[in-house]
Design goal:
The chain has 239 residues and is of the alpha+beta class. It has three domains: 53 residues, no CATH class; 126 residues, no CATH class; 40 residues. Helix content is 29%, strand content 18%. It contains five helices and eleven strands; from the N terminus they run E-E-E-E-E-E-E-E-H-H-E-E-E-H-H-H. A seven-stranded antiparallel β-sheet has the order 5-6-7-8-11-10-9, covered by helices on one side. It has a two-stranded antiparallel sheet with strand order 1-2. The chain has a two-stranded antiparallel ribbon with strand order 3-4. The longest helix has 33 residues. The chain is elongated and about 90 Å long. About 6% of the residues have low confidence.
Length: 239
């Protein structure tokens, strides 16, 4: 792909899109794609130079008590993306976000672009990737559960059900790539098919049980909720 002529978001000087530093103000530059038209622009631009779409940016905020990284034990840095706040460890590259903020991120292409623009700017890449271990929640200090995001992504995240989600370095970009690549849709479809198969199996089991009960002159499975755990299990899917 041929480099494009873009303007530095700091000083406005014309810079080629393949440059990593502005020739005029020496600002570090990183290109990202517009979430609307996919055109290339520099991170920090307020509007897309191609379609004029307003860009959601990531801004660092001052805060007295942002908490500490559960791995490095260093003070986290609060980054505001649109109306959501996430906390970044600039040493290991990990991220902490509340449950609602994470749900908003999963649904917003603009926020996803802004988050992706944060990576490789401040992270100390000399730090080795985190080893697999349970880490404490930055809020309540209790050990968090480890879970495969969307069950099929292959990205194992650390989750505190009351307070939020911790992502080790590169996990959040992988999740964003999973979402933008249609992973959530595939996961929901796989779950729907699995649920339909389970329903069919339960109906077949119920019919076989009904035939067997009728042969022995017993009540059918559907006639006695108190005697049949199968009925209760089926209701979990149909109610």
């Amino acid at each position: 792909m041929q480099p494009e002529a873009l303007n530095c978001p700091n000083c406005g000087g014309a810079v080629s899109s393949d440059k990593t530093q502005c020739e005029f103000c020496r600002s570090r530059l990183k290109t990202v794609g517009c979430s609307s038209c996919l055109g290339v622009m520099f991170l920090g631009s307020k509007f897309c130079v191609h379609c004029g779409e307003k860009v959601v940016t990531a801004d660092v905020l001052d805060h007295e008590n942002p908490g500490e990284c559960p791995r490095c034990k260093l003070k986290l840095e609060i980054v505001q993306i649109d109306s959501a706040n996430i906390r970044e460890c600039t040493k290991c590259g990990g991220f902490w976000t509340g449950i609602q903020a994470f749900e908003d991120l999963c649904a917003s292409k603009e926020q996803q672009v802004a988050v992706l623009g944060l990576f490789s700017d401040n992270t100390d890449r000399s730090v080795k990737p985190a080893t697999i271990s349970y880490v404490p929640c930055p809020e309540c200090k209790q050990l968090m559960n480890r879970s495969n995001f969307a069950r099929t992504s292959g990205v194992i995240i650390d989750l505190c059900k009351q307070h939020g989600v911790w992502f080790d370095r590169d996990e959040l970009p992988k999740i964003i790539e999973f979402i933008t690549g249609g992973g959530m849709h595939r996961a929901r479809e796989k779950e729907r098919i699995s649920l339909e198969e389970e329903r069919k199996k339960l109906r077949d089991d119920q019919r076989r049980q009904t035939v067997q009960d009728q042969r022995h002159g017993l009540k059918t499975t559907w006639e006695s909720e108190t005697e049949s755990p199968v009925r209760k299990f089926v209701n979990m899917f149909f109610d």
